[in-house]
Design brief:
Helix content is 21%, strand content 29%. Strand 9 and strand 10 form a beta hairpin. The structure holds 1-deoxynojirimycin (NOJ) (2 copies) and calcium ion. The site of calcium ion has 5 residues, from loops.
């Protein structure tokens, strides 16, 4: 079987003859909404590259810099100039988006904890969301970073932490500033800018505990407070005005859903960008149900922790096997509404480096190949391509040691990033597992006529692969990686069977077909997946043709802002709120439907309060006469209310602004049994902006 191996180069020639690859079609930096074709590279700005020594040790922040580059609790010098200097390194790795550390001004003084001084080098201890942090550069430098990235086909995603400022018990007492002007501190909070419910203990696990208590003593912003809401809205606008292409929203598990939905709505109505949230989960996690529906509730995409946790066990600790991996691919595709829209990763700054979990490079490469060819937009954590190892908050966050473009990991990323760009099967395709045992997984990605078949062996054993079937058309396929991970060619017969072959130790084979002519328009992605009439959306896919066609939300036509064969920008029309099917019609043919949530209008928060006695297992909900309140359908009621002060219950809910709403409270148990309160419908008018509390109602 090994005899089948043909050199990568000659195979490429064979493939070019049978499946001509013409110009690589791809979305580019102009596409700020759909990231399915991208590879994101996560940069801890302080740890990547020092391009400007003058900002290493600012005069106002003494004793926080370690010039030897070793003390990971201090600043180590990295900055935006450093990223600018390394753009070609990133570009030639195939990276098309960078996700950088929160860029906002953080506290100056270190935080003393158990005798150790910790600095804000990671950017998660903000004090002023309207200013860049002096360690990274100034506004001019930020603009230069964005421009340089864009000129090189790279989008810029900023990390953003709206959940909290700095330590409640630190030097600033969580102080929140607006362009240098102090608005308030957590220790003297006359305006209610912060929550004051104590630090969350591990034993405190209700949604109230996660959202209303402090995360690691960080002063928890009250996202129900109108001053905070408008502050965060304005801050987002400021960074959007500086040309950012995406937002990674920190610690969304700890934020109120209604705030997140309204904030995303603000952004989407202003300058929409791809927006994904860090909903931290373990596995198994009691919050899984909440996590998997997060995007439906808020319109914000998810960082795929379920995926990461599984991949790390299967390829890292070997505590799960390929059958578990196959199961995860199956249940996540059923459980997530938009599985290709998830942002996948195998390590990050909060986890032990993958290289530490799996020091064997061949297995490490197999995991990387899986990561780059499976569903979702992959994030490569800086230095993964240089095999940085270490614990999350220790050596794992070390300075980038070298920028070596010859490592196998760098080459694997480069090649597969190219395949992600050129083959829509990796962007929008379904996943079908074709063959699996404990050590081997063979899966197929398919988007109409485009297919990618991948075989991965994580073990040191050879396996004979027989009985494999595929939808690849009959032909001999060379390994797309040209043998980089020891892959060989395969022979697909007319009946879809694949001739038996041997998959050697830690071998990865990638076989693909890309058909450029399509018979009908095919939608792969629509983003954002939630929005109101008048908002811009992007539709990506294939076969839209070059002459103007029609976009519809159900039966209502949307106005089109731009049209190309693979990318359309349109405006959400005036259509009944709720889940609507987006379709594209071109040359008389209509595409598949892609469901998006249409909102009733500009969103604001109403914080409902009710006093209600319940039996064990019952929760209180609100339903009403608008889509955001389930249109009176108890099955579609928003989240259950919080009850830290039972029998008082409350819940912030995102509803259209300045609207008269009818509603009632209901009680529901885990089996879905519903008890309605009596009396006539209650009525309120929602505020024009920000938030408003209802009076405390009594169950009637
Ligand atoms: C999650 C971030 O990824 C982590 O690094 C940070 O410490 C916490 N959120 C708090 O911002
Ligand atoms: C612990 C993680 O280290 C932190 O980053 C994350 O935000 C929280 N867990 C979520 O609860
Ligand atoms: Ca919070």
């Amino acid at each position: 079987m090994k005899g089948l191996k043909i050199l990568g180069l000659s195979l490429l020639v064979v493939l070019l003859l049978s499946f001509p690859i013409t110009a690589i079609e791809s979305t580019d930096v102009a596409n700020k909404l759909n990231y399915e074709s991208d590879v994101i590279y996560q940069i801890l700005t302080d740890r990547f590259s020092d391009g400007d020594p003058t900002n290493d040790n600012p005069y106002n922040i003494p004793n926080s810099y370690d010039s030897t580059g070793k003390d990971v609790d201090k600043y180590l010098g990295g900055d935006w100039q450093g990223i600018i200097n390394k753009i070609s390194y990133l570009k030639s790795m195939g990276v098309t988006a960078i996700w950088i550390t929160p860029p906002q001004d953080n506290v100056d003084q270190p935080y003393l904890y158990n005798g150790v001084y910790y600095n804000a080098y990671h950017g998660y201890w903000a004090k002023d969301y309207f200013r860049p942090d002096e360690h990274w550069g100034n506004w001019q430098k930020f603009d230069e970073l964005v421009n340089t990235a864009h000129l090189n086909g790279i989008k810029v995603v900023i990390d953003f932490a709206p959940n909290h400022t700095s330590h409640r018990d630190g030097y600033e007492y969580g102080g929140l500033y607006k362009d240098g002007v102090l608005l308030g501190r957590a220790n003297n909070d006359t305006q209610g800018l912060f929550h004051h419910n104590g630090n969350r203990l591990d034993s405190q696990t209700t949604r109230f505990d996660f959202q209303y208590r402090d995360l690691a003593n960080l002063a928890d912003l009250s996202q129900e407070n109108s001053t905070v809401i408008s502050y965060l809205n304005d801050a987002a606008r400021l960074w959007l005005d500086h040309g950012i292409d995406g937002i990674r929203n920190d610690a969304v598990l700890h934020q109120n859903d209604a705030f997140l939905k309204t904030w995303a709505d603000e952004i989407n109505a202003y300058k929409p960008v791809f927006h994904f949230g860090e909903y931290f989960t373990n596995k198994p996690d009691p919050n899984y149900g909440d996590y998997r529906t997060f995007q439906e509730r808020t319109g914000i995409s998810i960082l795929d922790f379920e995926y990461a946790n599984t991949v790390r066990r299967v390829f890292g600790s070997f505590t799960e096997n390929m059958n578990d991996l196959s199961n995860m691919l199956g249940y996540t595709s059923r459980d997530y509404t938009y599985v290709n829209d998830a942002v996948t990763f195998i390590d990050n700054h909060d986890l032990v480096r993958f290289s530490t979990l799996q020091p064997d490079k061949a297995i490490f490469h197999a995991a990387l190949a899986f990561h780059l060819t499976s569903r979702g937009t992959p994030v490569i954590y800086y230095g993964t391509e240089q095999y940085i190892s270490g614990a999350d908050s220790d050596d794992g966050r070390q300075l980038m040691p070298v920028f070596d473009t010859t490592t196998t990991a760098y080459q694997v990323i480069k090649q597969l990033a190219g395949l992600r760009k050129s083959n829509p099967a990796l962007q929008y395709g379904t996943t079908t597992v074709r063959w699996v045992n404990n050590d081997v997984i063979i899966y197929e990605r398919q988007f109409y006529d485009d297919l990618v078949l991948v075989a991965v062996n994580r073990s040191g054993y050879s396996y004979n692969i027989s009985g494999l079937r595929t939808n690849l058309p009959p032909a001999t396929y060379g390994d797309f990686l040209g043998g980089l991970l020891s892959g060989n060619s395969i022979v697909v017969n007319a009946d879809g069977t694949v001739n038996s072959f041997v998959l050697g130790p830690t071998e990865v084979g990638v076989w693909q077909v890309r058909k450029l002519t399509t018979s009908s328009p095919q939608i792969g992605a629509v983003g954002p997946t939630m929005g109101r009439a008048g908002n811009k959306i992007a539709i990506d896919g294939e076969g839209f043709g070059t002459s103007l066609g029609v976009v519809k939300f159900d039966t209502i036509q949307a106005s089109v802002a731009s049209w190309s064969n693979t990318h359309i920008e349109a405006v959400v029309p005036n259509v009944a709120p709720g889940l609507r099917n987006v379709t594209v019609t071109a040359n008389g043919l209509t595409s598949n439907a892609f469901a998006c949530q249409v909102l009733t209008g500009d969103q604001v928060q109403v914080i409902f309060h009710v006093n209600a006695q319940t039996n064990l297992g019952e929760n209180v909900y609100v339903v009403g006469n608008i889509d955001e309140l389930g249109n009176w359908d108890p099955g579609k009621a928003y989240m259950p209310f919080h009850n830290p002060n039972y029998p008082e219950w409350f819940l912030p809910v995102s509803v259209p602004a300045n609207k008269t709403i009818e509603f009632k409270f209901i009680k529901k148990d885990a089996n879905g049994n519903v008890i309605w309160e009596g009396g006539t419908n209650r009525v309120l008018t929602s505020p024009l902006s920000g938030s408003a509390d209802t009076p405390l109602y009594y169950w009637q």
